[in-house]
Amino acid sequence: MSAVGVVAAAGSGSRLGADRPKALVELAGRPLVAWAVETLLAGGVDEVVVTVPAAERAAFAAALPGRVQLVEGGATRTASVRAGLAAAGPGADVVLVHDAARPLTPPDVVARVLAALAAGAPAVVPVLPVVDTTVVVDDGGLVADAVPRARLRRVQTPQGFDRATLLAAYAGLPEGVELTDDAAVVRAAGVPVATVDGDERAAKVTVPHDLHLAGLQVAR
Ligand code: C5P
């Protein structure tokens, strides 16, 4: 089974407040995107495509191994992944879509996703339980409802797919519909999505505190 990785790295990262796109922000001296690419390769992915902001192609090329293919991302994550998929080699049987914003994802997570695909799942996501009490609030900020958390899961990346299944699902997604992850795209096409164990270390870097925590993790 041959696997291609698509790393979504074309976001601006405005919530992080950095002076550069989030994927180029450094963690222990290396850009987040370099960590994410290394995780995919260490976990068993054969080739990697990275979607980048058009104006930053040279900076990404300098930060990544030469074997990594760079493609221009879009205005939204959905558009960026579409661009990455179009550039991903047609020889691959499966695709893993990963966020550059999850730099410390252990390669074991990649291996679990690949194993589920090899076992026949058409789509698979790493998940973790929800540990906080979770509620719905109304427009005024009052708690309107409590959500039983036993069956809730937080969804991480990389998310793995049979390549043909993912391409067909994106082809069937109307332009302009934006979904926050790729499993939502295949679910919209009626494809069952399996789960494997995620990992707390695969936490997403969104706000400055997340980067601080990631820094503590690599300092150990
Ligand atoms: O904004 P957020 O952190 O949810 O983005 C998740 C991932 O999607 C990030 O790695 C970001 O670089 C990527 N992205 C992208 N193209 C966009 C917006 C986000 O590749 N237009």
TrEMBL record:
What InterPro entries does the record point to?
IspD, IspD/TarI, IspD/TarI_cytidylyltransf_bact, ISPD_synthase_CS, Nucleotide-diphossugar_trans
Task: Give the protein's recorded name.
Answer: 2-C-methyl-D-erythritol 4-phosphate cytidylyltransferase
Supply the Gene3D superfamilies for this chain.
Spore Coat Polysaccharide Biosynthesis Protein SpsA, Chain A (3.90.550.10)
> What chemistry does it catalyse, as a reaction equation?
2-C-methyl-D-erythritol 4-phosphate + CTP + H(+) = 4-CDP-2-C-methyl-D-erythritol + diphosphate
The EC number on file is: 2.7.7.60
Q: Which organism is it from?
A: Geodermatophilus dictyosporus
Keywords, ordered alphabetically: Isoprene biosynthesis, Nucleotidyltransferase, Transferase
Q: Name one GO biological process term.
A: isopentenyl diphosphate biosynthetic process, methylerythritol 4-phosphate pathway
Q: Where are the residues marked Positions MEP for the nucleophilic attack as a site?
A: 149, 204
Give the family, as the similarity comment puts it: Belongs to the IspD/TarI cytidylyltransferase family. IspD subfamily.
